[in-house]
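=== RUN LOG ===
request id: a7f3
mode: sequence -> structure
chains: 1
length: 562
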Amino acid sequence: MSLTQRRPSTTEHGRGSPLGRRVVAGLAALVVPVSMATVATAATEITVKNPGQLVQAGPVDASHGFPTWYEDKSGVRLEPCLDHTNPLCGIPADEVPNPSAPVSFPNNFPGEFFYQLVEAELPLRGGGTASLVLGLEGAWLNEVVNPGEQTVFARVRVDVDDAAPGTTFRFKHPFGELTVDTDATGRGRFVQDVSPALGNFDTPLAGNLGPFLKWRPGVLPAPPAGYLGNPDVLHQVTGSPTGFNRFTAWQGSLQEGTTDLFSITGKVAVNTGLKVDLAAVNGTHLDVFTTSKGSALEVVGQDGRFATTPMEHDPGSDRFYVRIPLQSGATAPTEVTVRNLSDKPVSSSTYKINGVSVSQATYDGTNLTVAASAVAPASYPLTVVGIGTLDSAAAKTFAISAPPATVTVKDASGATGTMRVSITDGPASPGGTPPTDPGPDPGPVTDPGGGGGTETPATVPGAPTLGAVTAGNASAVVNWTAPASDGGSAVTGYRITAVPVAPADNPGAVLPPTVTANAGATATTVTLTTLVNGQRYNVRVRAINSAGVGDGSLGKAVTPTA
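=== RESULT ===
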């Protein structure tokens, strides 16, 4: 069954709450893989939005693949309420394959569950009812519990039943306002699902849900310890960012109904989880970087490789770090497990170490020094993209004038490791036109005077002045003017190059070849062909005389398009 044909969810039936048992069942939900979706006709729309109230998704819990928690703007964090035997979670028994057994992943796990579910219902003055659902729900892409298909979405929904036909109702709730048009039968509906994206649990943060609602303090009964409310007890609430903790309907300026009683689920997060940001083998040490709101993390040791080691962190920071010496002669680990000891039960996450780990990328004004480890199954030689190769884990220097901002090292399988280049030394660059890559060596230039030999003048030509560079279909028209100095020997021609540029977010991308064209001594324009549409190129022009190829012009970027 596709996303747009999901069976009714617990938010459809509202099961597990006193309201849900009275809400009309069998209404198809809409969950589509885009940032926002609405089911609406005519004036059925959100009129007052409420963005930015959910601020963070917690690290993914390795035991089930969903975020450990979601945090709202007020700092409240809710965890998934997963126990179908706990009435405070509001999960129907039929949401798990074996209701008599405890929850386990993936064989006896709920088909859907909530971080928070809020419901309200009110009778309309002119007849009929209106019901409200506000929810942050965990579910599955194809409704089947299947690892890798976890999704979370934020929902705002209002259903109108048996009301005045052909009428526009205006509704206000704790998170905003919307309108709903009824049809000829008195039925109307609005649904907004800020929808799931596989592997990205931040999409619900873009919705109109939040901050999380909770039972109003001072109004008995108090919420159960560790929860924001009890779904089986209607109660006044607090938490609306505008202070409007009601569900109210209007027809024009006439109020049709209002209530301040809501059904609420929400389990306060006790665990913080963790996210391993990077684990890398750097020579004889293992470096591990982790993010967590916990207080005590450790890297689990591996026999024959390294010992279990606690991680260090700065007070008030979510950053954790550890550098662990590898045992002499040990093979490099291919994965690392980190445990959060402050969680009860202890949470953990395992990180697969990349096949390539870059440990050094420095430039001293003359030499770029790179070192990288090949972690099994990677093997040497490794390719320093755009620079050269590494034959071992030992640091290697490359004499270059202009280092890249980031070094990317790649193994034969295509796995990459990346590190930003650190500048350690070097003089200030001279003023004027900066030195540039002279391009391919054109070889000796024959004396145009016909003397039969080769002549070596004192200098090569100066840099031409690059003019307009105009993109075409797989082509570019390049214009220039001659250099101010011919170096003491007449210019015999020009070399024009278009060098492909890797995207900033993918420095190791496989690039098409450099395109080169030659032009005569008096030329001032040329058309480059065989360029790749959509690929960004850096274009330069160089003059040639009997001494060779001169300095390049200042470059200009061009991206051909069809």
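=== NOTES ===
The chain has one helix and 39 strands.
The radius of gyration is 33 Å.
=== END ===
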